[in-house]
Fold these 2 entries.
Entry 1:
Amino acid sequence: MAKDKTIQLTIDGKECRVPEGTTLLEAARSLDINIPVICLHEATTSEGLCRQCVVEVEGWGRLAPSCITPAEEGQVVLTESERVIRTRRTILEMLNASVDLSQSAALQAQMERYEVDPNRFPGAKKREREILDDNPFYIRDYSQCILCWRCVQACADDMQYTYALAIGGRGHDSHITTFFDVPIPESTCVFCGNCVGVCPTNALQGKTEYLLEKGLQHNEIRARRRQERQDKRRSS
Amino acid sequence: MFNDPPVSSQLQEYLDQNRERGREMLLPALLHTQKIHDFIPPASASAIGAALNVPLADIFGVIEFYSMLSSQPRAETSIRICTTPSCASQGSGELVLQTCQHLGVDIGEATRDGQYIVEEVECLGLCDHAPGVLVGDEMVGEATLEKIFIPGDHPRSQIYGDPLYLMARAGEIDPLSTEQFQEKGGFEGLKKVLRLPPEELIDMVTNSGLTGRGGAGFPTGLKWKSCAEVDRFPKYLVCNEDESEPGTFKDRALIEGDPFTIIEGMIIAAYAVGAGKGYLYIRGEYTHSHQVISQALEIAGREGFLGKDILGSGFDFEIELRSGAGAYICGEETALFESIEGKRGFPRVKPPFPTTHGLFNQPTVINNVETLANVALICKIGSEEYKKLGSEDSAGPRLFSISGDINLPGIYEITQPITLKDLIYEKAGGVRHGKELRAVLLGGAAGKFVAPDQLDVLLTTQGTREAGLSLGSGAVVVFDEDVDMKFVLHGLGHFFAHESCGKCYPCQLGTQRQAEILDRNLRGQALPGDIERLEDVIATMTDSSLCGLGQTAGSAIGSAIKICPEYFEIEEVSHG
Amino acid sequence: MNEMAKTVRSTCPYCGVGCQVDLIIKENHITRVEAPFDVAPNYGRLCTKGRYGMDYVSHPSRLTYPMIRKDLGAKPRKPVGISGFRRASWDEALDLAAEKLAGIARENGGDALGTFCSAKATNEDNYLFQKFIRGVFGTNNIDHCSRLCHAASVAGLQITLGSSAMSNSIAEMKDLEVLLITGSNTSETHPVISTFLREAVVKNGAKLIVADPRQIEMTQFADIYLQHKSGTDVVLFQALAHVIVKEGLVDQGFLDNRVEGLEAYLPSLESYTPEYAEEICGVPAEQIRQAARLYGSAGAAAIYWGMGISQSVHGTDNAISLANLALLTGNIGRPGTGLNPLRGQNNVQGCSDSGGLPNVYPGYQLVSDPELRQKFEKYWGVELNPEPGLTTMEMVDAAEKGVIKGYYVMGENPMMSEPDLLHARHVMEELDFVLYQDIFMNETGEYADVILPAVSFAEKEGTFTNSDRRVQLIRKAILPPGEARADWDIIQDLALRVEDKLGKKQSVGFKFENSAQIWDEMAELTPPIQGITHERVEREDGVHWPCPTPDHPGTPYLFTESFPRGKGKLTSLEYQPSAELPDKEYPYILSTGRVLYHWHGGTMTRRSKLDDIYPEALVEIHPEDALNIKVASEDWVKLRSRRGEIEVKVLVTERSPQGLVFLPFHFAEAAANILTLDARDPQAKIPDYKVCAVAVEKR
């Protein structure tokens, strides 16, 4: 990446000069233009999933995902054109129709920014799942999962190399799961929590925090743990 | 818990033979297991993981992705009934209900004795024999309840055209006889070009003006050139026989009727770019085609047309046959690579392009079946002769798959530019039963509807582009005045929702939202604002999806909104 | 209550990786642990202990006030639980402790005291501790758990290179070309480090050799897995050296310029043929050749090791055999190479660096060196003892003989971690006085006379030094419970009282207001860290020593020009079998060690939700052996050795080779060290935790 060659392009009417290999997103950042993102994270591989970061490049038929598109010499880029805003708003509206985004401050802020109608899609199929509470460390509430893939990536080649998670289903019914949907303790999971650390919503949450947010006190949490241990012993 | 039979010795033997090849053998191993147990038991999945060094979670993800693999016990015989518009409009929906009733089960529920299960699937390439059903490994055309349990002969397409070039041999020869193949001009092209330096071959193909016949229409010579120029080895040549575009069945006819042509085309292409290994990826539902090409490959190898020093040229090339497992998206070139590599069929971000980073991240050329047949033809007759066929911007003969409410469904080889109107009325006998035409779906589900007053479009690359249309895979589905268009639209919506891989948000969410709106439209429950919703969804998918599936998922619906908006009107709600 | 959470950056208190963590604090509790993605060494990665194991800090059984044993003076002292103690004020407790310690020193001399400082406490805590013991009592009887851990690695590296730490850095791991891991179940003992090693293999095509009797998780990533018999490491690595020499894979240039002793060393390799190694180790000769070629022909190859190498009766030899490989092939002194003992505790490196050892002052300056000693004498204003003190096990010996009469134990649990526990506990019974300073009561505290409550890592400021010599900060994130105080604060208070009772006219110097001042004093006396201050560590998120001056950038990898002893020394070795091998009566090898979810004596993790996922000891038995013993997983067995017996549950797994059973040592109710034997490496004085003989019977 660190080449000596730099290139020049125009973003939202402003000139910018960046090293060759810089993405459009980074180039915009260098001009203090903050393109919204959903799936992007510094510690996971960018796969260009959410397309929230799309921008309009003059002469291109389609919008470009700025997080993975390298800037090129002489490009003229618009980061908030009508087409771009339409896509971003629609993506948020569609996402909100499928997923419980109520606990994600970042996404709520984006929804406000793009004047999203939270009820744009009546009759939408919601990806609702029961909360999975099958280990002492973290809960999985996939009703809040936005399928950003970060957890699967963190568990695999981006951080942990333990490979406990997979994507099950296909299309809209995709969901994060384990080998044959077994409870987490029966998978190869080592509870490092690196997945929780990169999850952008509360789909993955530390159990302590989850219980505190439900209003339990620390001693109640301890008592609950004791109970769970006893139940486990009894059932084994 | 779940059924978990022990690892069969058959599977263990297979794994022992293939463990060195690692993850790329995952899909074959899973298909193997599916055949043995009618599902993938956890113990087998674990054994596969241990042998091929693939994480268990990944294996489960792969099983879950492909429609023909199952992590739960199914039944010995799957009765797969096509419900995509061509077949749906010929009554496949009723057939589903009939069959379920006869067996006493729900859709997706196995009979008590574990013998049968009924599944609704997407296009099986039997459009000209609608409704089409895949019963186990047998294809049934013009399916009825009786025929499902007593299948007749394998359905073959009628082939129309005069003269025939690409389809000259199909149906006329024993597909497995290299003697008959060569009597009718087979391998002539190959023999000629093996004496040429590859650069000359590439120039010839470039000159011919050949463009890809899979739907994208990219200049073939240019693709070959980019790959040939890369100084990295090994290189791969892949044949894309994942023909799944609704309304398309031409590649199936080619493979089943004239397999050696495809082999010839592959060898030529590999020689041009310097590929030593080829993969022929054929969709899992094309069971008969799979058998035919498998035998053809074996014969070709035995007779010296494949392997080392082909025809004494010094060129080595071998072809490995691979089966898909039920995923339309695997027709997308990079998703196809992922599938061969043993992963979920997610398309990759481009660039980089396959010619520099394709299969196993190596330089790869991937060509459609029909394209390769054209390649063999060009090499036989030369680029000048070839250019006389077709048009300047659409060189060469082109195959159209015509089905639906048409008098003469089948494959049409067109060598002179023709309008859609003439194709339908002059060549294919017009709308059957004397009905009026309602609309034509051109280019498959990823294509667009053409209104009766727009049929003058010339079926060339330029002609269609000027009309805001695209040839796509050459699928032409004709709908007469009686068609339940809402039902067709709902079917298209369902198709994309079912086939979306789920990777990028616009398509993962958009195809679902689109299907929901079309569903309620079908039920007469359209809501105010539904058209605006559809338009936003379609615009988002078209503008921002990662791959061609998402980018075209709203194309047909969008065209329907334009040419037949009445089908989206909100119905009067009756009170009381 | 809707209090805003605050975030405090700190360093994980568990292992020697030294992960940087962000503690999210609400209502004085650590409610979540995050890791910053752009900071070394872990770049956002954590393991289950760092992520979810901090809740011990708020456990209700934290020590919150000083305590004095109710039956003070009763002999033999019996282990008693909390109920055997009464609450006391700090004044009473410290005065009593000072009185007792001063008394022993006055009557018998300072050498009648045995002291244990803490690889879990900060550099500042430990510096002050050894200043106290040396400066006030005039004894060098100071040691810590490194004695039971990497002492042999240190001894081996001292002999061959003159050094005592991991030579290369964690940052280099993901880019390795070839690596050898031996005697380290890295994915369970140094999980975050193991992710970088796996990254090297998966992403960068690094070639991995694993040499381990147990089929540990890292073997899944290995190109070559040498499954050698326990205790035969010298033979295996000598055989690798043999092949490297015979096949001309040595780095002649390196040997000529940087190494001595080649001539004397070469003949010693003759008999260590791969065939001989196959006989002794049980590893196919061809595999040994392959491994030797892989290591020997690499452009850069690194060696990582752990307790399998060090905790042995010939641990020093084991370490030397590894050093010989690096010296022969020039695989040291460059990035991607090195001799890298993976240090266990969060601050075992720092504790050693800060002088928590019987033979050296901070910075490994020998107590026996007159010039160096004078430097400390001058600064502290007191005459110092020139004789190296006793190591941990030697202190136990001395206590048994009555030469040592009192113990001061800070942040250690020898009553779980010493070998032959029944004997070690018995020795405790006759001591005159035991002073115990910790955050929790544990098996050692049960023998105490006075208990002083200390604060946890989250409740004080200071520095830890991780395994790759990186000095990093811990910061106060929550208020300590009750009356608990920072270790250095306690030591200071105690030291002043002892000085008073001993009638010292001049104090050695215990007037520190904060830990930064303590560091500054230590740095002044310790050249390798003279360029480091708390402020600099804060600014740079950590600094690798050696860092002799403020503008020196710190040293991620060592020995680019020379070794501390000058040239590296190739050292001849002779294979010695282990001290106690299986026989008819005790037919299995017992190997002890750790599991991912627990930490050592269990003081912390048994009080964390980590205990929920792994609540009881499991002995790992090979399926064939299990069949012979007629047990399955979850059945109970009795493990018996010549020292004692325990009952424990079974886990049948192919991780254990046939003939070897593996037991973690975290569980007091099935204490592994009841079975182990006190056989020591003669040079490092470290016990062998990896090979002794046991009988295994269905209960």
Note: Chains B and C do not touch (no CB pair under 8 Å).
Entry 2:
Amino acid sequence: MRDVAVVSFAQTKNVRRENRRNEVEMLIPVVQEAIENGGVPKDEIGFYCSGSTDYLAGQSFSFVMAVDALGAWPPIAESHVEMDGAWALYEAWIKIQCGETDSALIFSFGRSSPGVVRETLTLQLDPYTLAPLGADPVCLAALQARALLDSSDHSEREMAEIAARNRADAKSNPYAQLTGDFDVDQLLAEPYFVSPLRKHDCPPISDGATAMVIAADDVARKASKKPAWIRGIDHRIESHQLGLRDLAKSTSTSLAGEKAGAVDIDVAELHAPFSHQELILRDALNLGDDVKVNPSGGALAANSVMVAGLTRIGEAANAIWNGDARRALGHATSGPCLQQNLVCVLEGE
Amino acid sequence: MAEHCAVIGVGQTQHDAKRIDVSQYGLVREAAARALEDAGLTYADIDAVVVGKAPDMFEGVMMPELMLADSLGAAGKPLLRVHTAGSVGGSTAIVAASLIQAGVHERVLTVTYEKQSESNAMWALSVKVPFQQGMVAGAGGYFAPLIRAYMKRSGAPEDTGIRVALKDRLNALKNPYAHLKLEGVDFDQIANSPMLWDPIRYLETCPSSDGACAMVLGNTAAAKKAPRKPAWVHATAMRTEPTMFSGRDQVNPQAGQDCARVLYKKAGISDPRKEIDCCEIYVPFSWFEPMWMENLHFAPESEGWKMTYEGATALDGDLPVNMSGGVLSSNPIGASGMLRFAEVANQIRGEAGEHQVDGAKKGFGHAYGGGSQFFSMWIVGDQPL
């Protein structure tokens, strides 16, 4: 296996409604920033890969226009996954492992504001047995939270503490959307949104975009004083049928973590859009109390769909660049109730 | 490359306008089961699954690979979903091959499909969003002016497109899986079919199909154990350019030329016309055969039509093109590119049945998408490179 490192990461500020710029206009500055900070000259970047979904844009082939943000002339080697950008990173990492290129630019974008994201994501469900129930992602997450509370010692108070901690930590993240100090007792006094979830247990609705540059071996060492080396990256999927899974556990995260070598972690950026999912993911990855989780505020502070997973890996790299971690973990999820999960373990020199 | 990659199993569905006998699950399983059977394997032998398809609005399910995880035996495994517009069938095969070539997996199942009858493709292509140019009349309306430009530029005879369509429609009669099989089709029938988007006639156009294609790819160890002859991947390439900018040549796009050039270089090919034995090229409208023959350096610029005219691209020509009947005969969009890649692999494996090119040793598979701006290609051979 070739040594591959994250050498730069850039993101837009996550906002509830990006009204002034389209996807291309959101991407142009972050792509430029990632290239400038990456240290690999643009004409030497050998592969581009993006993650996004047509259903957010409400338009077929919505990724086609995103190419305009790259300056794809002369023509470039480029690919796209209809997945969170974290899986675009995986495809790019594979391309480097093949020896097809020494560097790659990964980007992702997602604007939830043009539609109603709760309704949009419902269209992700099996159209024969699940979608007709009309259960949106919040309802399904509530089922999962109930399964966790009923089968463990975890409590609604812990969930509120997670929400408060993430949003307090997010105060120092200039790209976060929902930040501030919240009193746990006051949060618990709020009514249920979808029982047992309260509003604070749910993510904000966000628009945002990200870009990342990765490079191999000496190209990374030349490009960056502090490459964040990818020591392991793996992803796994589970059954789509919720009744076939133990919703209180994330076996696919455990498996991906095991394959990616998720041990001795200092900082973990977990893609947990709902507070209880942080508990499930911590358990799945065996993260002890000494592991700092989501110093960026995580998806509870900014949750641009298709972007938030890649952002976790970018924030894990940030933890290494800041000196907060020697080994950091970035995690991404997709599908209802954590159906699909990716784990990426990064390490400094 | 850490590892060689070989095609060790190929499967496809019966393609049809409406496969109402199967769900999306059933459709992908029909192709996957045939590919696994061809490879002498079961789902349990597969390390990872790579799914590809064109826009999700064609069926009305967002990211349907999530729900297909169960029917493709992917639970507990890595699953990737590729979408690169019309080239996606080819790109998906390339992503799957790279998982083998990187040395990450031994055996990968890759499946592409479209079930256009679940929704309305014309609608899905024509959603008008603010601040963007509308697609107006689907793909035909977009590509007709490019064909007209090619005709003017090359001076090709007006009936070139009819000749391509006739060849592909006759080839389709030899392909048991083809959607459109026009028994007794002849030149006049195509020439007299209605003009849809001038100069594209009805019978010079691809159909809308339900269908799926699957391949099992393996490394050298897996290929050695395979019950049938493998087709070895010699080279893959993808190239992209923006949809529109001033001065862009959409008739003979740079991205396609570059992609072919890098592909030949990787495969050690200096004279593609001589060294390649057969091609499956993405030709959704008949005139794209001569256009792509030039773009892919099989013919000098403005002379691609001569290959059609002289019969070079016929099943018994010196460079047979679209022996299966091509996209003109079956077009489950997301799978159309992979069908090209898989059909050419079957030629190398000697498994192409009635439309087999005798002794084919090197084959070229091609897909394109968007506004002639996304390209994916591979070359497969009967021996590892």
Note: The CA atoms of residues 183 and 243 of chain B lie 39 Å apart.
